[in-house]
Give the backbone structure.
Amino acid sequence: MKTRLLLPLLALLPLSACDQSAEGNTDAGIVEPGVDGKSDEFNGVEDGGTLRFGETTDGTFTEDFQFFEYTFRARADAELDIEITQAGSSRDLDTTLFLYRNDPDGGAPSRIALDDDDGWGALSRLRDFRLFSEGEYTIVVGTKSATGRGNFRLSLGCASGDCEPEAPQAECNPFFEEALVECFVELGNFDFDFEVPGFELVGECRDWVDESTESICPTEDEPLCVDSEPALTACMNQWESEYVRPATGLSEDNDGGLDALTEAVWDSENCDGGEDAGCSFEGTLYRYDGDAPDAAALLAFARDQTEIGPGAFLNQTLESEASALKSIIDTYGVDDEFQAFLTDAGLDLDEAQISITESFGSFQWNWGDCEGGLVTATFPSAQRVLVVQDMFCAG
């Protein structure tokens, strides 16, 4: 979190020219921005953005009492080399350099170093300066007596060879997950045949998100975007586990009752909507041995079997209420046929563990305005899994 730096009006603060502890001999003529810990925004100092190790940035002093600030993140024990370089800086420019440790709780930043003339000529440099804690820091560049004019070039180097923050914990952040969803939608809208296999789709979207990190991240200095690989890998592991890696050990176990239910749906009054309306309904009953497959694996298995493609990656609900399956049957008005199927198969809807994917959401089909869904219902006592895919279109 950034903290406001306020300029004192025409104030000259006596500060040490090379005092890395902010104490020591004084040197009149160094003007430092005042600090106000009541706000998390900079005021009176021009924000130059984020600076990373190995980078340089340029600025220009055009008026009195002008300062520039740059933030960076570093790990504990990093040794810094911060310099106003001769190359890129105006001749005879007399600079000042301040380093602050930002308060993670939003309080006032603490000045931990300053320099006047330790660089080339009258330019400034903090050489081999060691940090004792990981976090966010701010560099402020000014001029002697705050009256200088000219160009400057600031470089941020790492003298210890390892200054970047520790890699962030691998967790899938919402902005990455949202970007993946948008990618699935984008690819799915290209072709309503949805012929792209799930594993190929995930791979394509991962590449797209990886290449688009800069535009996806909410801020350029977001830690998980500075090093996006751990967070993105966590997202992909999560998505592959939930959407690509299907359950195994399932064998088809239809006995004819489900076929009768499917025919009843197709023959139902609600499916006979004329040329601009219609529906689709498919169901399969599977047997499993041992422990019941988890909901995410079942949805991945169902998507693989039904080949409904990228649309099935959206709006997944795990372990929903059994009423969700019943509501699909209600849509087609085949409640009696559905109950007969459950009874004949020895399935108790009250014990069903439901997981749902909106396979297409709301979309336009040649039948009209449509919605599609994919449901898996697990019946533990019967060791059965029911997979239902439906599409209902109103003309």
Observations:
- The radius of gyration is 32 Å.
- Residues 1-26, 190-195 have pLDDT under 50 and may be disordered.
- The first helix runs from residue 174 to 190.
